[in-house]
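Incident log, structure service

09:12 report received: a user says their structure output differs between two submissions of the same chain.
09:20 pulled the input from the user's history:
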Amino acid sequence: MNSKTQLREVIVTSSAILDDVAKRHKSLLDEFSMKVISGAVKAFSDATNPLRLNFHSTAIRILYEHLMDSYSPIEEVMKAAWYKPEKDDGKPTRGQRIKFAVQGGLSDALVSQQLSIDVAPLRKRLLDAVDQLSKQVHGRENTLVSDPDEQDAIAVASAQAMASFLDLLAECRAAVIEPIEERLDETAVDEIVNSSLAEIDELASHFSLEEVYVNHTRVAAIRHDAIVYRAEGTVSVILQWGSNSDVRRGDGAELDQRFPFTAEVEVPISDPWNFDDAAVLSWVDTTEWHDAMAPDPSDEY
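09:34 re-ran on a clean worker, output below:
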């Protein structure tokens, strides 16, 4: 196999890892993260650029820091019950921030014994990868890696470490929600059924609730003090203009309509599966309806 063929396989391998991450973890990655991943793939795919590894490493480092800011804010880490300062300035170490990103304020005992998750191996692997990335981000003449095979090894290692990190984030959240998934569905439906649905009420003279369907449930956040579960689905209603008599006479109107809804259930971190004292918030999205009913600017001319 010649070097050009090897290089093509290198590019496919490193790109495939990041592309797979983007596809599998859409719920964990925001728009900025997706852009950074795309940038990393494009940077490393440019086989003619002698600094492709440096640009790739910069992108992955940006992704790492963004995920830390999103899932492990320093102030949140310091409020976790398990947190103990290990640095003179009292701020959390990189390892502690990785731990919080995965488990939030959940106790070590619950994470290891009830969720069967071990953060330690990932923490070391990810930190090693970040240290290697830093060498390429702050490249110097004597640190520049020009050998394609060595570039590949570093790029693949960093991409795999990032993939493992996101895998563990997803695994922890899946393990947390599994015991109460059915209860979460029921709580979300009850919240919608028993709420005033003010967003829908303003659309017509009357409305009747026909069906509430939960499409998806997930852990939206694991904070130092609480877990926020989120349920998303659709609510089916019949919108009515005019009274029942108006409708029977043909002077009123009815319309079947579906709207997306979201319900969030917040429970204490100390008892993540107890909904007895949960704070529940829900809302219905009628944006599409309002957009459809908005006047067409072209009609004014």
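09:41 both user submissions now match this output. Likely a transient worker issue. Closing.
09:42 reviewer note: The chain has a mean pLDDT of 90. The chain has two domains: 3-178, 180-300.
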